[in-house]
Amino acid sequence: MSGRHGFRRVLVANRGEIAARVIRTCRRLGIETVLTVSDADAGSVPARLADKVAAIGPPPAAASYLDIDAVVGAAVAAGADAVHPGYGFLSENARLARACAAAGVVFIGPTPETLAASGDKLAAREHAAAAGLPVLPGGHVTDPEASELASRIGFPVLVKAAGGGGGRGLRVVRDPGELGHAVAVASAEAEAAFGDGRVYLERYVSPARHVEVQL
User: Cβ distance 103 to 76 under 8 Å?
Assistant: First the structure.
């Protein structure tokens, strides 16, 4: 029997409270859930809530929750109609959306084209600028050029992950002497959280309000 949205079984590719909310919603809609779990999360609350679990790898996210082949393979093996990525992890990854389509599984989220344009924050900046929208001074950076770019922007600057969000890979730098370390730490954190270590600099604005819209 399918849920009211036509899905019989959904693979939930996330963990923690995010996964629990998706699982509870699917239950209300009459949809069976399969939860991807790393070895560390096999006994978690979401794992107990889900109808089934699919082990996808060891505890490090890069070897489990960020492994696109493992996620899609688990969906196919479980006979899932769709993959729900929650938010964070692979939710903004166009490659996952394409891999789902190639495997004949629905990706619950934007199209690969939309994800490619907005999930990559550097690409999103370029699209916004091309549309005539104002963007803060900034750009992609690697260690050798960080000081030069930061000097042009003016301190304080914000080091941001290009391929993710949720506060991961994010550092405020007020002192030029701290920039190199901040770039290295933010890049490593972004690589671990999103499988993408690219970072960029942007002028830091304070005080400010963060306004976000979920699509």
Answer: yes
- Coil, helix or strand for 108? coil
Those residues whose C-beta lies under 8 Å from the C-beta of residue 27, and which sit 6 or more positions away, are 33, 49
Report, as an integer, the average pLDDT of 134-142: 89
Instruction: Identify the CA nearest to 172 among candidates 162, 164, 163, 183.
Output: 183
Report which of residues 106 and 87 the model is more confident about. 106
For the cut 60, the answer to whether the pLDDT of residue 3 exceeds it is no
Query: Hey, what are 1's tokens?
Result: 């029997």
Q: Which residue has the higher pLDDT, 76 or 192?
A: 76
The full set of domains in the chain, from first to last, is 9-116 (3.40.50.20), 120-203 (3.30.1490.20)
**Do residues 97 and 112 lie in contact, with contact meaning Cβ atoms separated by under 8 Å?**
yes
Q: CA–CA separation, 145 vs 147, rounded Å?
A: 6
Phi-psi region of 34 (alpha: psi -120 to 50; beta: other; left: phi over 0): beta
- Exposed e or buried b for every residue in 2-39, given b needs 16+ CB within 10 A? ebeeebebbbbbbbeebbbbbbeebeeeebbbbbbbbe
Beta bridge partners of 57: 38
Name, in order, each residue with C-beta under 8 angstroms of 40's C-beta and a sequence gap of 6 or more: 58, 59
Locate 192 and state its tokens: 């671990």
Q: Single out the residue of 135, 123, 189 nearest to residue 159, CA to CA.
A: 189
